[in-house]
Amino acid sequence: MERRALTSTAALATYLADWPGAAQVFRLHRVREFAGRVEEEVVYGITSLGPGDAGAARLLELSRAHWSIENGLHRVRDVTFGEDACRVRKGGGPQVLAALRNALVHLLSRRGAKNFAAALRRFVIRPSEALDLLRAKSEK
Fold first, then answer.
1. Is the pTM of this model over 0.70?
2. Which of 66, 70, 112, 123 could form a disulfide with 130 if both were Cys (CB 3.0 to 4.6 A apart)?
3. So what's the pLDDT on residue 31?
């Protein structure tokens, strides 16, 4: 069970003049109840969306959408593909590897893989199936 409350204001926009485009600040208070314990968290944010473009309800919606991306794509790249542990840091290498990881996420999703780690383990012992991912025709 999770409860969220978001408060936003444009009153600090002039105070944040050094941050070009800052239109609102917000405070998001989350309370999560697990079996036998309660976890509470407060986070703060700055947005370029003004109150007319995004009130508190819309900012809460956008915050939730951000975390679905983080948990969906970035978590797979970080945990399953070991992106954070990668030692490639110079030149175009990091960008090329990120593009390859994104392509692999797409190919595995298109194939209907529910567990990417299990799919990768399977490809290790069946490399011809990995090559089939590249040969598969796009379904339009």
1. no
2. 123
3. 95
Residue 116 structure tokens = 């990417």
Per the structure block, which two tokens stand in for 78? 């970080």
Q: pLDDT tens digit string along 8-65?
A: 999 987 888 888 889 999 999 999 998 889 999 999 999 999 999 998 889 988 888 7
DSSP calls for 27-88: EEEEEEEETTEEEEEEEEEEES--TTT--HHHHHHHHHHHHHHIIIIIHIIIIIS-GGG---
Question: Position of tokens 């204001």?
Answer: 9
Closest CA to 46 of 5, 10, 74, 4: 10
Question: 89 with 99: CB under 8 angstroms?
Answer: no
List of residues 6+ apart from 78 with CB closer than 8 A = 84
